Amino acid sequence: MKEEKKEKVFLVGFVHPGEFIEDTQDHLDELGLLAQTAGGTVKNSLIQERRRPDAAYFISKGNAGKIALEVAGQGIETVIFDDDLSPAQIRNLEKILSSKVLDRSTLILDIFARRAKTREAMTQVELAQLKHLLPRLTRRWTHLSRQVGGIGTRGVGETQLEIDRRIIKRRIARLSKDLDRIERGRQERRKSRDASFKVAIIGYTNAGKTSIFNAFTEARAFVQDRLFATLDSVVRRCILSGENEILLIDTVGFIRKLPVHLVASFRSTLEETVVSDLLINAVDLSNPRYEEHIAVTDTVRMDLGILNKPCITVFNKIDLVDRSVIERARKFRPRSLFVSALKSRNLDEIEKEIVHFMNLDKEEIDLRVKPGREDFIAFMYRSGDVLRKEYVDCYISVRFRGTREKIKQVYRTAETEEALV
Ligand code: GDP
Ligand code: MG
After folding, report:
1. Euclidean distance between CA atoms 225 and 208, whole angstroms
2. Which of the four pLDDT bands, split at 50, 70 and 90, describes residue 144?
3. Domains: count for the chain
4. What percent of the chain has pLDDT over 90?
5. Which residues form the domain of 372?
6. How far apart are CA 235 and CA 217, in angstroms?
7. Which of 223, 322, 347 to mutate to test ligand 1, by most ligand atoms within 8 A of the CB atom?
8. 322 shares a domain with 211
């Protein structure tokens, strides 16, 4: 089997004020997983402890020198920083390290670019990349023309900058327009499913959202021990116990310090979450930083204005942890569920909770049933609650209560069987 050649990378973390070095280490571990997802292999890492970042190199010049030695010695191709760097810092570091230098946002954008499969996702990612690039490009050129300076260079630099900027801006406008059109199509499709009860699975990346989704739908969506295995939200109809039909939605995961342009570009994908009736917040209980993951998810929920939507917290991967970890999480979030998607443990509890919320969502309707259509009324008894049944002159007056899904079914059956007056 042909193996993809792995890019050798070196990671750099920074202990910010108020942080412990252990926090920085955990964040570096996550950065390592991101780097692997992007096709790299981590050779070594360094943590900088300092009051504030250096304006020119972000880290101390001494540490930059140390990394430069490792780069040369181990043939490292890329040095990745867990923080966002200024264009000047990137340039200075590339010079001193003689390697490619990436920051966290660029790395995440790169992963999204690799993962994008549908036209919508590809458009969203390119848009985010260009928006990320535009200000950097400007500053880089400004810097360059100032640095080189002198007669003849200024004009050229500025012209080039204008041309580049114009091309990128035109492309951004074009992509935004494309995205608008794609989104309208999405809204149309959404409208046609409006009557169904919608459940969206959200949460930090790698929590097991797609695994839970697959367990319920018996779909074979892409599951991988990688961050952001899926970018597009996937919607599938599925039947729960007691013939409750729902639409289950698998969404792209969230992550700490998600580049701001990505959040904006992926808003439309996340809109699926906004129009859903119930959220399942999947949490990887085996990750020691799960509380931080929940906080990140809460922040995104707040940004999307869905903090008040009913939400079930589902701690996943209980097969990997001790009882004590479960007990602590239960105290942290009472009323949460504990499951293992991989080992199919307690998944029926999720099902029960969904059905519980569907029942809260019941509505009542009044119908005039044709006389003698007891068969249709029996069907209503099976579908929900018949609260009142009165024989009036030329029809039977029935008050029915059921889930929105059942009400839709009752209307549909009434129409095909011509059961109403
Ligand atoms: P997503 O990013 O939230 O969609 O996460 P995935 O469903 O893609 O799962 C991420 C990784 O976690 C995969 O390697 C899964 O096999 C693994 N995983 C998911 N659920 C469980 C679980 O209950 N137990 C264990 N041990 N691994 C799990
Ligand atoms: Mg997934």
Report:
1. 9
2. very low
3. 4
4. 48
5. 362-417
6. 10
7. 223
8. yes
Domain with residue 31: its CATH number is: 3.40.50.11060
268 and 350 together in one domain: yes
**Rg of the Cα trace of the chain?**
27
Which residue in the block uniquely carries the two structure tokens 């439309």?
268
Q: Ligand 1: distance of its center to the CA of 223 in Å?
A: 7
Q: Which candidate, 100, 63, 101, 68, places its Cα nearest to that of 84? A: 101
Whether the pLDDT of residue 146 is over 70: the answer is no
Q: What is the pLDDT of residues 76-120, one digit of tens each?
A: 999 999 998 888 898 899 999 999 898 888 888 888 888 787 788
pTM value surpassing 0.85: no
Q: Is 224 in the pocket of ligand 1 (CB under 6 A)?
A: yes
Task: Please answer whether residues 169 and 249 qualify as being in contact, where contact means their C-beta atoms are separated by less than 8 angstroms.
Answer: no
Banded pLDDT at 158 (limits 50, 70, 90): low
Identify whether residues 94 and 128 lie together within a single domain.
no
408: domain CATH number is 3.30.70
Q: By three-state DSSP, how is residue 391 classified?
A: strand
The single-letter DSSP state of residue 23 is H
Alpha carbon separation from 364 to 35, 166, 222 (Å, rounded): 53, 57, 40
Distance from the CA of 347 to the center of ligand 1, in angstroms? 14
Classify residue 16: in a domain, yes or no: yes
